[in-house]
């Protein structure tokens, strides 16, 4: 679910290819000598660490003299351990073959705080290696895939000339094997040292002030070879002045596993990306397309699925793939959750049937040591759902892909134990008004299991290549989500990849019981588009013609709409929202919050416990209320984004309807700026609140106001007025509509007085802050794509409009009232006066000090 964005999380329009790796079992310790390293830069601009060069030269020995009777661990590279040294026997047939090297933590220190790299199983780094021979040496080189040209292209040699592979490490050849078809190299120093690609990441080194690796407290644990991979497990200790738990150690110790996986000799045929269908992917500049310019090509990430029976597949029959997608459940997972995690994996078979495959994916219990002594969760041949003993409220679904084609090779889903806390709190806050089954302090295992199944499906979707589809939930009418028949069939959104959580719209009496998302119409379509097998040896461009036809058939149907993550421009593309009208949906949501809040203590009663849970759930009510407000606010100054091609009619970008923007401001006036007194539930607050509720409500109101008056929002509104004239919702309309909500005719209470001061202060910033809203290093197109539309405030119409608005407010303020209200209005007038006519610095000549100047500070009223 990647509830806290990470993959699933982890974004904008940028494409992310996530993590994976491998490991093996343990034998004896081996102390590591120190390794001298230097830094080099690859053509892609990434940093790699290389050996400084061969040490003392030794002659090439006879294979038998060096290895003796040591038995090889046969596999991709036969490996040997002789007198504490580790050797690879590299066959000539594997020289220059590309291999993906993925390094993961096996075990980490307690208390490690490094976002995304904290627990055993999480990825540290991945890199492609090629082993090459030059004279009496073997080099590890790191190819770059950022620039390419087909080998048949006239540009191929030119691209090769400017895309040289970096040398990561070098080794002297120690011996030739018996038939001289391979060489022996000593890899002890490389794996035992601090080579960046297979060692501790820089962010952790900086965080804990790591100075160097400590060779005396580090060793290679095991090196194991398998048919397509080599697994190296190491223990590395680093000298560090900071520690997550105990600085007296002066060190941090980690267990790591580096997996070197042979990439397919025949790469999978790539599939070109399409912004109208959501997939993670990768991009490169391609000079071999025949275009009259350099061209960026992008490929989606997907597993290689090919039918066992092509003839049956061509007849439209469901066919099993040659190789099934298999996920194993981490043996460390609590047994009661395993069936639900597996069910979430297997649910995707429904979607793969839309692509013509049956039994395409399966979840399995990891084999025991007795069943398969060679199985390891870190082995790159296996995809695993890893379970972390963590208080993090999250889960994420990464994947590792072939950088040449986008083929997904394996995945390690990260599952944090405390995701259950988040699920419990959100499910309660969003559904307890209509769902008596959640009115308890702790859910039953079956209830929690079903929520785990839902999250499992979401995360597995990421590992299949699918990003979040934040536009999906907009497809369903708000009132449809109050229908039991509709929700029983469709859930809450057409895609489980949206952040469409639980049904907060349904009201008591509606009878709705299916309250969360499921794999839906969009998911079936996305899998069909990405995974359908297209026979006939077509090129990716030829396949694109068929795929384009499929996409155009579904264009305009909201069920198949993909809305990207990473932008605040389109109000349809929001997380945690439901339905096609945020104002209507949020009104229903707030009505349910008003039902839940007074009952929190009663519904979660725990004998002998304090009121921490009451406080937590009250905070969740505030958080949910804020989400509803945010959903509505994005309509103001919003634009709808519908990616299209030349042969599709209609605009790609269009402004949100004027009446909808007006409705959004009216919602805020009624539900936010009119004091939400329902949040001041004295019986509940008396159990934990120590006098801060005024500040909390003030924060909600003022933060909302500042969000509405966002400069980028104003920039789009000015643009709309220039393009649409009278059909636009303008900045003038906004200020006019806000005024009665901020300054009602009735006597203002203390919350409204706070809000009025906040409004004047927000307007003041337009006159006093920097003259432009800009973001160095980014183009206006890039910023606008994310919703950060640039504006030069000093040169825009905004400042004169703000001055006029402040003058209107000052002139309309009442003269009378009780002492407190009168003081408030007098203060507002003074604030406005100082904003419109700031006190000029007065230059004083200090007595007896000719030429010495001082300035009096500008008067400023603080609150």
Automatic annotation (TrEMBL):
In the UniProt record, the signal sequence range is 1-19
Which keywords appear in this protein's UniProt record, sorted alphabetically? Signal
Top-level taxon of the source organism: Bacteria
A Pfam family annotated for this chain is DUF5117
Region (Disordered) spans which residues? Answer: 844-863
Every copy of the DUF5117 domain together lies at 121-308
The protein here is known as DUF5117 domain-containing protein
């Amino acid at each position: 679910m990647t509830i806290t964005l990470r993959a699933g999380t982890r974004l904008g329009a940028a494409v992310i290819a996530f993590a994976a790796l491998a490991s093996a079992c343990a034998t004896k310790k081996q102390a590591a000598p120190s390794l001298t390293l230097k830094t080099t830069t690859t053509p892609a601009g990434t940093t790699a660490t290389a050996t400084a060069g061969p040490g003392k030269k030794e002659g090439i020995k006879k294979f038998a003299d060096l290895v003796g009777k040591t038995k090889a661990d046969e596999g991709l590279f036969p490996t040997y351990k002789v007198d504490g040294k580790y050797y690879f026997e590299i066959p000539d047939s594997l020289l220059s073959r590309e291999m993906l090297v993925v390094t993961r933590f096996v075990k980490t220190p307690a208390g490690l705080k490094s976002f995304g790299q904290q627990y055993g199983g999480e990825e540290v780094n991945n890199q492609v290696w090629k082993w090459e021979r030059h004279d009496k040496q073997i080099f590890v080189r790191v190819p770059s895939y950022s620039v390419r040209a087909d080998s048949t292209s006239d540009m191929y040699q030119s691209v090769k000339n400017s895309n040289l592979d970096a040398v990561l490490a070098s080794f002297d050849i120690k011996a030739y094997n018996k038939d001289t078809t391979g060489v022996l190299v000593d890899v002890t120093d490389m794996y035992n040292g601090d080579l960046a690609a297979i060692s501790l990441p820089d962010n952790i080194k900086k965080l804990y002030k790591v100075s160097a690796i400590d060779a005396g407290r580090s060793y290679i644990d095991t090196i194991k070879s398998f048919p397509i991979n080599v697994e190296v497990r190491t223990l590395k200790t680093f000298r560090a002045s900071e520690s997550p738990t105990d600085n007296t150690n002066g060190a941090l110790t980690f267990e790591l596993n580096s997996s070197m996986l042979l990439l397919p000799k025949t790469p999978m045929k790539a599939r070109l990306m399409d912004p109208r269908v959501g997939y993670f992917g990768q991009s490169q500049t391609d000079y071999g397309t025949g275009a009259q310019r350099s061209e960026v090509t992008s490929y989606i990430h997907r597993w290689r699925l090919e039918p066992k029976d092509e003839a049956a597949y061509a007849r439209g029959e469901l066919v099993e793939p040659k190789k099934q997608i298999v996920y194993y459940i981490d043996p460390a997972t609590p047994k009661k959750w395993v069936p639900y995690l597996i069910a979430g994996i297997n649910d995707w078979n429904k979607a793969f049937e839309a692509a013509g495959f049956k039994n395409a994916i399966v979840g399995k219990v990891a084999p025991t040591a007795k069943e398969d002594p060679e199985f390891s969760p870190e082995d790159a041949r296996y995809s695993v759902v890893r379970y972390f003993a963590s208080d993090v409220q999250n889960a994420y679904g990464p994947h590792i892909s072939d950088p040449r084609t986008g083929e997904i090779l394996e995945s390690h889903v990260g599952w944090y134990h405390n995701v259950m806390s988040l699920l419990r709190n959100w499910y309660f806050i969003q559904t307890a008004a209509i769902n008596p089954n959640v009115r308890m302090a702790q859910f039953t295992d079956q209830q929690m299991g079903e929520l785990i199944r839902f999250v499992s499906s979401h995360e597995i979707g990421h590992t299949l290549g699918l990003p979040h589809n934040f536009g999906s939930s907009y497809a369903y009418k708000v009132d449809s989500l109050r229908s039991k028949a509709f929700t029983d069939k469709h859930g809450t959104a057409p895609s489980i990849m949206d952040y469409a959580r639980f049904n907060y719209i349904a009201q008591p009496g509606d009878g709705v019981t299916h309250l969360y998302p499921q794999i839906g119409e969009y998911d079936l379509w996305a899998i069909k588009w990405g995974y359908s097998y297209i026979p006939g040896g077509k090129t990716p461009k030829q396949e694109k013609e068929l795929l384009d036809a499929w996409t155009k058939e579904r264009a305009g149907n909201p069920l198949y709409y993909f809305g990207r993550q990473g932008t605040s421009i389109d109000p349809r593309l929001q997380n945690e929202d439901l339905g096609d009208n945020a104002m209507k949906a949020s009104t229903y949501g707030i009505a349910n919050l008003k039902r839940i809040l007074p009952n929190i203590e009663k519904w979660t009663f725990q004998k002998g416990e304090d009121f921490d849970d009451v406080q937590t759930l009250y905070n969740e009510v505030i958080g949910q209320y804020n989400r509803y407000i945010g959903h509505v606010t994005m309509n103001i100054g919003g634009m709808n984004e519908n990616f299209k091609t030349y042969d599709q009619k209609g605009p790609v970008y269009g402004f949100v309807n004027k009446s909808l923007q007006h409705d959004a401001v009216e919602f805020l006036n009624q539900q936010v700026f009119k004091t939400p007194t329902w949040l001041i539930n004295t019986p509940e607050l008396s159990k934990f609140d120590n006098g801060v509720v005024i500040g909390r409500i003030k924060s909600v109101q003022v933060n909302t106001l500042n969000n509405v008056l966002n400069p980028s929002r104003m920039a789009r509104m000015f643009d709309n007025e220039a393009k649409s004239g009278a059909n636009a919702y303008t900045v003038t309309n906004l200020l006019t509509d806000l005024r009665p909500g901020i300054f009602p005719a009735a006597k203002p209470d203390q919350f409204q007085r706070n809000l009025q001061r906040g409004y004047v202060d927000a307007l003041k910033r337009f006159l006093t802050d920097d003259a432009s809203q800009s973001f160095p290093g980014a183009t206006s197109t890039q910023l606008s794509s994310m919703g950060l539309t640039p504006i030069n405030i000093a040169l825009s119409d905004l400042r004169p409009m703000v001055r006029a608005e402040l003058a209107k407010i000052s002139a309309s303020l009442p003269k009378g009232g009780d002492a407190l209200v009168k003081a408030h209005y007098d203060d507002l007038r003074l604030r406005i006066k100082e904003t419109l006519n700031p006190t000029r610095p007065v230059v004083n000549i200090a007595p007896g000090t000719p030429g010495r100047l001082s300035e009096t500070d500008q008067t400023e009223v603080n609150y």
